[in-house]
Each structure stands twice: as C-alpha cells, then as structure tokens.
Amino acid sequence: MKFDKNDEMSPFTKKVMGAFNFCGDKLLQISRKTDTVPGKIPEVLFLILFAVCYSLVLAVHEPGMDVLLSLQLAKNLSVAELLFQLPHEQFCPPLWNLILVPFAKSGAAPAVFSVIGLVFAVLTAALILFRAPFPRMVRLFLPFTYFLFFQYGVAADNYHLVTLGFITVSLTYNMRDTRPGIYTLCLLLLGLSGTYGLVAALGLALVRGCELIKKRRAGKQTACLLVFFAAAVCTVIMIIPHGELPAMGSGKDIMVKILYLPFAILADAFLTNTFYLNTSLAAESVRGSFLAVSVLFGIIMLSVIFCIGRKKKTAGAFFVPYILFVLFSMVMGIGRKHTGTAFLLVLFWLWITCAVRGEETAEDVSFVHIRERDRRALKSASVLGVVIVFAINLYWTFSACAHDIRKEYEIGRREAEFLKEHKLGDRTIMSSGSCTYTLAPYLENGRLGDDSDEMENLAKWDSLGQPDVLYMGPDITKVWDEAETAGWEYTLVYLEAVETIWKTESDYQVASIYVKSDLARELGLDEITNVYPEIR
C-alpha cells in the first residue's frame, strides 16, 4: 500500500483519525452550544432533577451500620462524651455527631437523618451547578457521578460534610489572599468533617504556609493560617486513638498498599474497580489483574496532573495533600469507600486549575509542543476520555441505585418491621456485636442488647434471662455456659439476603432472626429450613 511519506499515515489510518477527530469536534460543539444557552434554567432544572432522583432512591434506601451507629451515639451520649471520649474511639472529629445531637435527642426517626443528608447533598449539587468553573455540560452531569450522588450521598454519613468541605475549599481557594478569613473557615469545615478531610486540610494549609513564606507576607493571611493550625492541632489531640495503631499486614499486604495507594486509587476513583471485598486494603480483597491496569492508569493520571498543574501553578495544591493522604492511609489503613477521597482531591484540583485565568481555554492544548495534527488528536482524546469517565461513573450510579431499589441493601429497617409486625418488637432481643445499632433506632425497646462478654453486659443479661429473639446470630456462649443453655431451642423465622452495594457489584451476607421455639409456635411463625437465601 502506497502513502505519502511526508504525511506518514496510510489511507486507513487517515480515516480512523478523521472519525476520531470528528467525534471529538462534535462533542465540543455540543458542549459550546450548551454554554450559549442564556440564564440558569438548565442548572435549575438539573438541580430539581437531582433532588427528585435522590429522594426516590432515599425513600427505599436502608441506612448503613455507620449511619445508624452515629444516630445512636448522638442519642445516648452526652455532649461532653461526644467531644472528649468518642473521637478517640472512632478516630474522627465529632462535628457530624454534634450536628445530629438535636435531632437524635428529640427522638427523631431515622428518616429525619436521611432528610439531613438530602439537604447537604442538594447544597453540594447547587454549588457545583452554579459556581464550578467547568463547561456547562460537565457541571450538569457532575452531581450525578457515583461518589457525589450515591456513595458520598445516599449511602453516606459524615462524608456529606467531607464532600461539602472539599467543594467550599475549591470555591474559596482563589480568595485565600483577598478573603483569607472565608478560606480559613472552609479549611476548618474540611478539617472537622472527617479524618481524611483533616489530612487534606493540613496539606492545603502547608501549601498556604509555603506561599506566605515565599511572598514574605504577614498580617491577616498569616493570622488566619495560625488560627487554622491551632484548631487542627486541637483536633488531632482530640482524635488520637488510645489503643494501638492498626497492623500493616503481611508482606503481600504491604506490597498491595505500595502499588494501590499512590497510583491505583486514582484509577479506582474514576474508571476501574480493584476491590471485590468490603475490607481494609489487603491482598485478598483486590483483583491482581485489575490492580495492574489501575496502576498504569494511575501513573498516567498523575503525569497529566503534574504537567498541567506545573503550567497552571496548582501542582503543589494537589500533590502535598495527596502525598499526606497516601502516607496516612499506609499507616492507618483504608477501605474501598475511601477511594472517594481521591476523587474529591482530583475534583478540587480540576476546580482550582480551571479557575486559573490564562491564555488557554478549558479544552485548549496549545501549550503542548507537538505537531498541529497530533495536537488535534490529543484534544479529541481528552474530550473522549472525559466522556468515557462520565459514562462509567453514571453507569455506576445507575447500577447502584437500581440495586438499592430492588434489593435489601443493609440490615435493620426490614428486620425491625418484621419484628413489629409479629409482635416481637417489645420482646427480649439479643444481637451479635454492633448489629444492635442497626435495630435500635427502629424499636423502642429497653431489652435489646448484644453478645459482648463485658461485665456490665453480663449483669444486664443475668437480670433479663433467656432472650426471646436472636438477631444476626449472636454467640450466646459468651454470656451463658453450656449447662445454662441446655434445653434452649430456637426456630429460624426470618432469612434474607443482604447485599452491600459497591459500584456495579455487591457483598452478600445473610440477615437472620431466630425466635424461641415455643414462642414461634404460639405466634404461628413458620420455620425456615433454607439457611442460604437466594439473591433476588
């Protein structure tokens, strides 16, 4: 086949590149036409759509264990305990629990806390829709991406605050010289929102300190930064755990952390899915082949961030908090839901980078010193890459929401409804471990407890006697010996598959309720013989 040597492309390659560039150009044209629509009608309509879709999913969503635990702690603990005791145990700032206190102590139902989450989610979506420096098409669909809509929205607890903290810091970043007080307040919100938010806020504060030293500035900017560092130090002292730090794991676990945290976590936040178990980062909870692909994508993403950030002078604002986040996660461990923090860090960097005024537009790549033909191909690749990322994230969101609507997502609400329906809600109920917190918000029952072997709990069960109901398979031998439980008979009356959602997948577990056999016969409850319920 003959072709122009100067052009260095065969006719087939020309056609492929022509189609590639055609798609990129058409997408850019659509985006530009959307930007020309006057007023804020598209933003208002998409905010209403966001609120409606969020509410529909929320109406059937079962709050997770972390959410219900926060509710119970805010209800049962004093403000002093929430401030000075609980943060050490949870290794997390207490702001979210303090926000819940007025509602929890007034006896509000769990649905009220879903409404609180809705308010935070709509506020975050409104800030993105109306204030983000992105093209309109990006702003319209960004609130519907997986972490913003579902994982840190519908299924979130204090991550509502973390997300809002990142967005407000992004919004006020360019005001750090002119309005340092506002920027400092937003940094404080981010730092008090959660542990990973605190790590990111400390990283941004270090970047700010280096800027002030380099510019030799003092006065109001320095005073605000010192106020933040003082508050951050107090927060760190408040949350330092009293126990031992988590173990680093085996050699394989450490190797997975070294590969995953600096590199693969970025790809998992936008494109891939390395985790397949809802555990802390360990060798048995990741797919090896996915990890290799994610590492490659992560290296590419970090290279792009470095090159563009260096040009726009925003590289430090990303890499300093990101490096702190990676180092902190290496020591303290990380679960798969924390990959959303990497998503928020990249979103923050994109926000402040697009907000930098310069000669280039958002889609211009003229600063790359390559041939015009290759520059056009690079622009098309960038546009199509953004479309692919959005398509994957929107699919994750749709899949997670559809799964949540059709199946039981978390234990608690449906099991409580079953107990109340069959007049078991006021009976003596024993639960396994922390599963007690998933049932307590739905039942007004003072005879609900767990199977811990602490002296206070043993004394409680000594006074209550044999439990009428066993919820989530508690280990009764922790409380009573074999001689005491001889002759105890229980009947399995409730069994459901529970599937905790992660992107397009879910973790399978079983929700079970056993009732004393004579009580089950008295209430006319049928025995269930199948101990492995099918996935619906």
Overview of this structure, please?
There is one protein chain. This protein has 536 residues and is an alpha/beta fold. Helices cover 62% and strands 6% of the residues. Helix 20 links the parallel strand 1 (429-431) and strand 2 (448-450). The radius of gyration is 27 Å and the shape is globular. The termini are far apart.
Overall residue-averaged pLDDT value: 88
User: What is the succession of H and E elements?
Assistant: HHHHHHHHHHHHHHHHHHHEHEHEHEEH
User: Roughly what percent helix?
Assistant: 55-70%
> Main β-sheet, in a few words?
5 strands, mixed
Backbone structural class: alpha/beta
Query: C-alpha Rg, in Å?
Result: 27 Å
Percentage of residues in strands: 5-15%
Return residue spans where pLDDT drops below 50 for at least 5 consecutive residues: 1-5, 358-362
Separation of termini? 57 Å
Task: Figure out the total of helices.
Answer: 23
Q: What strand line-up does the widest sheet have?
A: 2-1-3-5-4
- Strand tally is 5
Per the principal axes of the C-alpha atoms, what is the gross shape? globular
